[in-house]
From TrEMBL:
Highest classification ranks of the organism: Bacteria, Pseudomonadati, Pseudomonadota, Alphaproteobacteria, Hyphomicrobiales
Top-level taxon: Bacteria
Keyword Transferase: yes
Documented EC number(s): 2.1.1.-
Alphabetical keyword list: Methyltransferase, Transferase
Protein name: Class I SAM-dependent methyltransferase
Species per Swiss-Prot/TrEMBL record: Rhizobium mulingense
Length: 245
């Protein structure tokens, strides 16, 4: 199984334009904060970023001392080139892949990451099965764009290659039906840096307050009407506890 040729062509030069580098760096800091929050005190020596983009998350993880060794696989040639250009000392390998076959042996890594990848993937369960094959634990993060205004989500995200749209429930079901045990799952609002980057200082602050408070006081209403993110730490071992916050 390979990713559709049309999608492959779309991602060929996906990361060649450096104009949005600042946005990606802000988003990476946000995602790394989520990974640390969900993982808690757990330690990981080896990490693979599957669908690593241009390496912004890897750079943040390395800078914060998250693990000793990192690897990356990415579908886009421009992404692979951008990761290599960063020359991150702890990154041991960077490979282009076809979206479904990771060139590493079983259980090679303590943790695999798929951060804002699943929304782009044609065959999600195949992707997740391969991710869990090469790792002992898996952190997955997706945007929750299946809101009451789905048409807007499709208009906004479709040009960036989003073909799957999730609610908290559909995301949880996807993980469970892929043979994963959810150790912890959390829903996040965008942080203030990201909101202000997108909307400006005043409007961004207001959107941050609305999104955060709606999630805190009326979470079901929040995810039905606004876009959030869900992050989940999973394992394939039987008997893991499920906790959703």
């Amino acid at each position: 199984m390979r990713t559709d040729a049309g999608l492959m062509n779309m991602y060929d030069d996906y990361y060649a334009d450096g104009v949005v580098a600042e946005k990606r760096a802000i988003a990476a800091r946000q995602s790394v904060a989520h990974i640390r929050t969900v993982a808690g005190n757990q330690k990981f020596d080896s990490v693979i970023d599957i669908g690593a983009g241009e390496g912004a998350v890897l750079a943040e993880l390395h800078a914060s001392g998250f693990a000793k060794d990192f690897s990356a696989v990415e579908i886009s040639p421009s992404g692979v080139s951008a990761i290599k250009a960063r020359s991150i000392p702890a990154v041991r390998s960077v490979d282009q892949f076809d979206g479904y076959k990771v060139p590493h042996p079983d259980q090679a890594f303590d943790l695999a990451l798929a951060v804002h990848v699943l929304e782009h993937v044609e065959h999600e369960r195949m992707f997740l099965h391969e991710a869990k094959r090469v790792s002992r634990k898996l952190y997955i993060e997706v945007p929750l764009e299946l809101t009451s205004n789905l048409d807007r989500s499709i208009r906004m995200s479709g040009p960036y290659g989003h073909i799957n749209f999730y609610t908290p429930g559909s995301f949880e079901n996807l993980l469970k039906t892929s043979g994963l045990n959810i150790e912890k799952m959390m829903i996040f609002a965008h942080d203030i840096e990201y909101e202000q980057y997108l909307s400006g200082r005043a409007k961004g602050w207001l959107k941050y307050q609305i999104r955060q408070n709606l999630l805190r006081f009326a979470p079901k209403v929040a995810v039905r009407n606004m876009v959030y993110m869900a992050g989940a730490l999973c394992s394939s071992r039987p008997g893991s506890a499920i906790g959703i916050n």
